Automatic annotation (TrEMBL):
Residues 45-393 form the Aminotransferase class I/classII large domain. It comes from the Bacteria. This is Aminotransferase class I/II-fold pyridoxal phosphate-dependent enzyme. Gene3D superfamilies: Aspartate Aminotransferase, domain 1, Type I PLP-dependent aspartate aminotransferase-like (Major domain). Its cofactor is pyridoxal 5'-phosphate. The keyword Ion transport does not apply. It comes from Bizionia myxarmorum.
Length: 419
């Protein structure tokens, strides 16, 4: 028999194996200073394109004031206990009602974290006779929720409605045998590449197939739709979404999340969501802070306008300069370049050290081998000057990537990794 830890000593996992070369710089970097368009990385100012503070609320003076006052009034403990036991308050209810109204659903329920909440909601919505059909590129929280499911599940090709339909046919046949129902899950906006889920076409399929539709709109909430209610509103199909999810970790610049649906469904989830039944209630400071942020989303359309001014300038500028930004239909701005992982590391180092640009880097196995994805999240606090220096920096790094500079610079890393 082996020691359980043997495998850990042997294999650090797909990301962990890079730790010696990457930790503290490419992964677990420390961004310092107030959350904004410019922060400090290793003592130097950088333009930050990797924080999800879409509407610039994280460091907004009114938000900071309310957060501080709520902290002073309630501390970080209140209320103690799970919602069902001793952690329920009027303000939790008020926030739920306001969130439901904002996303045009009958009712809403708070979640402590989006990730856990998604896992738990999927778990609560299905039983073993049901079938889940979900996009193959779904966020980890969807994949992990599906993992808990005891029944059948099918993936469909990313954002491919034909593939979804084929899988719905299979699922329908199977559900007829098991006596269960079908849950389809998509993201409102796919966070890596920025495409919107094809919600309109998926809702249209309800005319032909019997299923319920669950949408994770982490990146759409606050950024898309006339009122900011998200990808469903943007595509005119909010009514066709049976269960709507968004996190506070992006546009709301906080922690927490919620689901919204018909009242009877939320009433059921309230009594069956294990992540809320067996965990402490969302703390009051976050509830009060979320009420303030929601009010600002509702009453300050200029926040979203500022965001989109930056998104348009950045995405148009990149396209005009011949960069491949894929098929984004949202604020998420990917730039695809060709190169190896060591080249990507040298390139990102150059961007940070010599041009003061900080963005996330995504490589194989998250995207195909040989591709480098630089992912930018514009915010309402960025300026056109930030966009301009970023575009110039991207021009310069592309030239160096193409003329082999990064290949030479990364030779030592490549050699070390091949050992
Ligand atoms: C698509 C998507 N769903 C869910 C989550 C998880 O949300 P949270 O950070 O609130 O756990 C994220 C990341 O924040 C996300 O990008």
């Amino acid at each position: 028999m082996r020691d359980l830890f043997d495998k850990i000593y042997r294999d650090k996992g797909p990301l962990g194996k890079w730790a010696a070369h990457a930790e503290g710089y490419f992964v677990f970097p420390k961004l310092e200073g107030e959350i904004s368009n410019r922060m400090k990385f290793q003592g130097k100012e950088v333009v930050t394109w990797s924080i999800n503070d879409y509407l610039g609320l994280a460091n907004h003076p009114e938000v900071r004031k309310v957060d501080a006052e709520a902290g002073a009034a309630y501390g970080s403990a209140y209320p103690m206990g799970a919602r069902m036991m001793s952690g329920h308050t009027d303000l939790h209810e008020t926030l739920q009602n306001e969130l439901a109204a904002f996303v045009k659903k009958e009712a809403a329920y708070l979640l402590n974290f989006g990730y856990q909440g998604m896992v738990s909601t999927i778990d609560a919505l299905v039983s073993k006779d049901d079938i889940i059909v979900y996009d193959v590129d779904a966020h980890a929280c969807i994949i992990d929720g599906v993992r808990l499911h005891m029944g059948k599940r099918f993936t469909y090709k990313h954002n491919d409605v034909e593939s979804l339909e084929k899988n719905l046919e299979r699922a329908t046949k199977m559900a007829e045998q098991t006596g269960g129902g079908i849950l389809v899950i998509s993201e409102g906006v796919f966070g890596m590449r920025g495409e919107q889920g094809r919600l309109k076409e998926i809702v249209e399929l309800k005319k032909k197939y019997n299923f319920r539709f669950f949408v994770d709109d982490a990146h759409g909430f606050g950024t898309l739709g006339a009122t900011g209610a998200g990808a469903g509103e943007e595509q005119g199909v909010q009514d066709g979404i049976d269960v709507y999810f968004a996190t506070f970790a992006k546009s709301m610049a906080s922690t927490g999340a919620f689901i919204a649906a018909d009242k009877e469904i939320i009433d059921y989830l309230k009594y069956n969501l294990r992540s809320q039944m067996f965990a402490k209630s969302l703390q009051m400071q976050l509830v009060v802070g979320a009420l303030k942020r929601l009010d600002m989303l509702r009453t300050m359309p200029e926040l979203k306008q500022n965001l989109w001014k930056i998104v348009d300038a950045l995405q148009t500028g990149l396209k005009d300069r011949g960069f491949d930004i894929g098929t984004t239909q949202s604020c998420v701005t990917p730039v695809y370049l060709k190169g190896s992982i060591p080249e990507a590391m040298a390139l990102v180092k150059d961007l940070r050290e010599n041009y003061g640009i900080f963005c996330s880097i995504v490589v194989y196995p998250v995207i195909p081998k040989g591709l480098i994805l630089l992912r930018m999240i514009p915010t309402a606090t960025h300026t056109l000057e930030d966009v301009s220096v970023t575009l110039d920096a991207f021009d310069a790094i592309r030239t160096r990537l193409e003329n082999g500079t990064y290949k030479r610079l990364s030779a030592a890393v490549t050699a070390a990794m091949e050992k």
